Amino acid sequence: MDPYARLEVDGKQYELPIVVGTEQERAIDITKLRGQSGLITLDPGYKNTGSCESAITFLNGEQGILRYRGYPIEELAEGSSYLEVAYLLIRGELPTRTQLDAWVEGVRYHTMVHEDLRQLYAAFPKAAHPMATCSAVVAALSTFYPEDLNPVDPAQVHASIERLLGKFPTITAYSYKHSIGQPFLYPSNRLSYVENFLRLMFGTPCEDYEPDPVVARALDMLLILHADHEQNCSTSTVRIAGSSRANLFASISAGISALWGPRHGGANQQVVEMLEAIDHEGLTGKQFVEQAKAHDDTSRLNGFGHRVYKNYDPRARIIKQAATDVLERLGVTSRLLEIAVDLERIALSDEYFIERKLYPNVDFYSGVIFKALGIPTPSFTAMFAMGRMAGWIAQWLEYHQEPGNAISRPRQIYTGPTERRFVPIDER
Ligand code: SDX
Prior knowledge:
Layout: E1 4-9, E2 12-20, E3 26-28, H1 33-37, E4 57-60, E5 65-68, E6 71-72, H2 73-79, H3 82-91, H4 97-108, H5 115-120, H6 130-144, H7 154-180, H8 193-202, H9 213-225, H10 233-243, H11 248-260, H12 267-281, H13 285-292, H14 314-330, H15 335-347, H16 351-355, H17 362-372, H18 380-400
Helix pairs in contact: 2-9, 3-18, 4-7, 6-7, 6-11, 7-8, 7-18, 8-9, 9-14, 9-18, 10-11, 10-18, 11-18, 12-15, 12-17, 13-15, 14-17
This protein binds s-citryldethia Coenzyme A.
């Protein structure tokens, strides 16, 4: 294959190198385009633009493939644990037993938050959205560890990584406890990562709390499925914030805010609210799908469509099956799951969705299973952030390990008024 792309502008030819990845993806390298031709490219929403080369996650949207460091998501979801996957994403290889034990121990040692940080919650309204409190509290972590904020000092970054992975479940649980006026428990180091989170969420000082192993295993798998997804909106936000050399806490806080949006991670909350509204209003699936074709964000079929997947999101397939299995094992039924399955059946046979290649994405069934596991709806997107924490960290690190990494600063094409003279207000 030709290693160059050729561009002709005003009779002048430019040769642009073609970059080829390990999965044979190809890109035109335009790093020298403006210097050679004075031209820039324009691509609102970056639908055709790669921001980096990355060795972390590979996905093929046409074939519905997703792999973390080469391992298929299906195998990791089945056989691994979230902290092991976090190690894989961040360190690049599956850990040995000794490495994993040290990693888990290091994270577990940092699950407690500073007593003064607990006071921060008292300032928030009870109805504060968990994504607002989590973003604020994660940014506030930087004020408690001023000695560990250097983004290029490996020891300081490692300390921040352990603190983020260790404390985020605690921070999320405290957001929920604050909203219901219940006391904050302290983490328990005798419990696993997810069991500890469940106890912080649903335990009280009044009685012992034993996490349900079925629920814990399902949640751990959901964190794996949400752990990374190449250069999505929030991950790109984390990379861009990191490119200014903002510390890791500040960069992650920015990512949490970007994930909150209903077009992105906020969709899992939107989906469940959509399913509940359909049930409450007695709408049929057909009626709702017809409404969803309107060209505005208000009536969209939330949980459907994806920038990259033009096929079934492999995570949605796993979560759909897990939802059915977990409900069966918990001995409960879910009207919401029935509605979701019906909507999928109708949409996938509807020309509007077929021609636009709109399939269920990770958010379509995740809310149904979060709800079945007892997670409150406003905390769904914080669960997404808990899983994505590993990927954000891995991507932020990869940026900092890139030789000659530059600050991210896109250009633009100006379309405003050309030069004009200032007119003093008395003459306007
Ligand atoms: C996540 O990028 C990632 O990797 C994200 C993520 C991750 O792991 O990080 O996978 C997580 O964010 C999943 C997506 C969650 N969001 C939703 O479920 C919200 C609903 N979906 C959409 O808003 C939309 O599909 C996006 C935002 C996800 C993707 O938007 P694009 O790529 O910009 O596509 P688009 O909005 O231009 O849609 C293409 C067409 C449009 O119709 P036309 O103008 O061509 O006629 O499809 C239509 C859209 O109107 N469309 C939908 C639809 N999604 C797209 N119509 C109805 N219902 C929908 N859900």
